Amino acid sequence: MGLRFRKSVKLAPGIRMNVSGSGISWTLGPRGASVGIGKRGTHLNSGIPGTGLYSRERIGGSGANRRDDGSYTKMSITVEVTDEGTISFRDAEGNVLPERIVNAAKKQHGDTIRDLINKKCDEINSQIDALGEIHLYTPNSNVKPQFQPQEFPEPSPVKPIPKKPGLLGMLFKAKLRKIEKENQERDHQYQNALAAWQAEKQKFENAERNRKDIIERAIYSDVDAMQMFIEENLLAIVWPRETTISTEIVEGGRNVFVDVDLPEIEDMPRKIASAPQRGYKLSVKDMPVTKVQNLYMRHVHGIGFRIIGEVFSALPNTQ
After folding, report:
1. End-to-end CA distance of the chain, in Å?
2. Is 81 in a helix, a strand, or coil?
């Protein structure tokens, strides 16, 4: 194992002489903003004491023609990819970084940066996929609704273990009374928490019984229950664009009228993205007008198909 010897001698405020196996060097200035002078040249040392953030940069000296002395800079970099395909590299203060630092970041963390670009590419294109494929999630209208029981999600409060008096509690009555009071308070808090938990669980179980009754009986005979059930099913759909739906059930559920406020063609995305395998670029281009029109057509037809499927799936009497 190699051993290194280094000793620092403070000569005056802001001036230190450093003695090591490689020779003598000098440090001028306070911590966080000092200048080091030695046989390897002159370096500027800057940082924030106590944070671990620092940098060391050569600013002069005879070492200009030497090999790299191993000095480096640590810094935090933020990489941002916009929906327009612009990629920016900024420091912790939001300042745009110079090209040499950007190139170093790409060299050291190329895979991570490419992953970020690919994720943004997928995010842009996924909007197009969601609009054109909403009908793929239509439920099977040949399968009648079935009640699937659910467990109450909140765990029961844990009963506290009484604190034992110990030797001091056995010898001193005041100590014993204090421990007994603490145990009573903890038990009282537990009883309150248990009562609140039991009330919420009872409410949940009542809602489950009501849901079971609706699915297994009411949607076959009660128009109000049919209306509530189909509205819950339609509201649970995550529409990629704002879509407003209202329904009216008549003739005991045999006929259902559906009114749909469709999104406009202007609401369709206009950009498509691609990320080349090499380099650090995100290409975002305008979609052809015919492709936008085709996407809108697919989306509108998909909405109609999805709604019809949801109605027939939720209301078995509907014809």
Report:
1. 86
2. strand
- Residue 77 CA neighbour count, 13 Å, CB half: 21
Q: Among 111, 82, 132, 115, which Cα is nearest to 284's?
A: 82
Number of C-beta neighbours around residue 304 at 10 A: 14
3-state secondary structure at position 89: strand
Q: Tell me which residue of 166, 151, 170, 160 sits closest to 194, measured CA to CA.
A: 160
173-216 helix and 223-235 helix, angle to the nearest 10 degrees? 110
Whole-structure pTM value: 0.60
Tens of pLDDT, residues 166-211: 776 667 778 888 888 999 999 999 999 999 999 999 999 999 999 9
**Strands, E assignment, the chain:** 6-12, 15-20, 23-28, 33-38, 41-48, 53-60, 78-81, 87-90, 244-250, 255-261, 271-274, 283-286
Q: Are 157 and 193 in contact (CB under 8 A)?
A: yes
Cα–Cα dist 259/188, whole Å = 55
pLDDT tens, residue by residue, 27-40: 655 665 565 666 66
Q: What residue type is 309 in one-letter code?
A: G
The two tokens of residue 66 are 């030497």
